[in-house]
Amino acid sequence: MKSYATGLLVLFIAVVVSACGGVDAPDQAPRSTDQPAITGAPAGFNTDDVAFANAMITSYEQSTELTDLVSERSTDPNLVALAADIDAAQRPNLEMVKVFLVQWNADSDTSPDQSTQGNPVAGVIDDATMARLKSLRGPEFDALWLPSMIEHQQGAAATAEAETAHGANVDAVATARQLVGSYQAQIARMQQALAGH
């Protein structure tokens, strides 16, 4: 019985000593919390991620312009519905990639002449085609809009595929992977619509 009590006493002393030894720990803790959780540039992203986000913003903004034209110029209700579906699917993604840039403290570069600065955004429709689309209505508009939008979404899909291959940020890569499937489904619908015209 005496040995049992002695054992308990030794255990108690060990606990007290270890607790007392921890008294100095708070002096050290503030030193570690003085530093931000992420030091320097936020971890987990690279220049490919930033390029992807900027390219997607440029792509989404033109895509919105393209889909807005359909309700004003097309007489095909199926095409109007398709354009509305594309626009609805892309608006949340536009906001998401903008958030990525804010999280990474990276600048958004969506200047009008971005495509002439050596890094053209894949699929972006040239000014002449955009001007022609704005001048057309009815079946003539549809005949130009469908292949133009298919080309646009193929370029966006290629940009997303490049991000899945070279991006470092897990959220951006996951978003890109999801976008590839979404673009492929949209392209298939537009190709089917084009075949019916």
Automatic annotation (TrEMBL):
Signal peptide: 1-19
Keyword Acetylation: no
Keyword Signal included in the entry's annotation: yes
UniProt keyword list: Signal
Domain DUF305, residue spans: 49-194
InterPro entries found in the cross-reference section: DUF305_CopM-like, Ferritin-like
PROSITE patterns membership: PROKAR_LIPOPROTEIN
Record protein name field: DUF305 domain-containing protein
